[in-house]
Specification:
This is Putative acetyltransferase domain. It comes from Petrimonas mucosa. Keywords: Transferase. One of its GO terms (molecular function) is acyltransferase activity, transferring groups other than amino-acyl groups. The relative contact order is 0.13. The protein has seven helices and seven strands; from the N terminus they run βααβββαβαβααβα. It has a seven-stranded mixed beta sheet, sandwiched between helices. The protein is α+β, with helices and mostly antiparallel strands. The protein has a single domain (about 5-200), classed as Gcn5-related N-acetyltransferase (GNAT) (Aminopeptidase), CATH 3.40.630. It binds coenzyme A. The site of coenzyme A has 18 residues, from strand 4, helix 3 and helix 4.
Amino acid sequence: MDVEIHIATSAYAKYAQEVCDLIYESAQARGTGIAKRSPEYVAEKINAGKAVIALDGEKLVGFAYIETFSHQRFVANSGLIVHPDYRNMGLAKKIKRKIFDLSRKLFPNAKIFSITTGLAVMKMNTELGFKPVTFSELTDDEEFWKGCQGCRNFDILQRNNYKMCLCTGLLYDPAQKEVAASSFAKKVVKPIVKKKAPNKLYKK
Ligand SMILES: CC(C)(COP(=O)(O)OP(=O)(O)OC[C@H]1O[C@@H](n2cnc3c(N)ncnc32)[C@H](O)[C@@H]1OP(=O)(O)O)[C@@H](O)C(=O)NCCC(=O)NCCS
């Protein structure tokens, strides 16, 4: 097995149908609903360089793509899929990292979010710095929530006026990261630098 993960370009658009099939078959196996994705939509993401694709030689073994909502103020990393024969080897983690880095590069000021019931996604996103939040902190873009229509729990979401459901909301807020980093710098780094600065040994 020699898997390589690429940032997608139009050269990979030929895999769009296969990506949809893989997502569909996995959803069937799990017995869950899925957000509907057409091969045209997936190809659009690939052509726009807003996807990552994992290949073992010519074989498609993993995929994820970027969606933007609320005028690019929110980004979701969607459609994460790993071929059943390639699971539990750390491949999803690598794909997640790559699509996360790509999202940060393309949309540095956007909040990145996901909703999931899956432990694997919760674990991976938490490692990347996502925090659990209520749905009130996520996009209110109808386009995103329309994606839930294929889920078997959609009636629960509707009943709760789109405010809560069985999924956990996870959010990466770059502004919070900066605040955390700057308060870390103020509280920890600055005092250390201050203490070290007046080095009398080297004073003439
Ligand atoms: C979920 C999925 C992407 C995981 O892919 P994978 O390559 O097997 O995941 P990894 O090997 O990188 O594992 C990442 C972490 O998730 C955990 N994990 C993986 N599958 C898991 C599962 N089914 N249940 C609980 N934890 C799981 C791993 O133990 C690992 O955690 P660790 O870092 O603490 O060891 C894959 O099973 C899949 O494609 N499932 C169908 C589609 C899907 O559910 N997509 C996500 C929602 S859109």
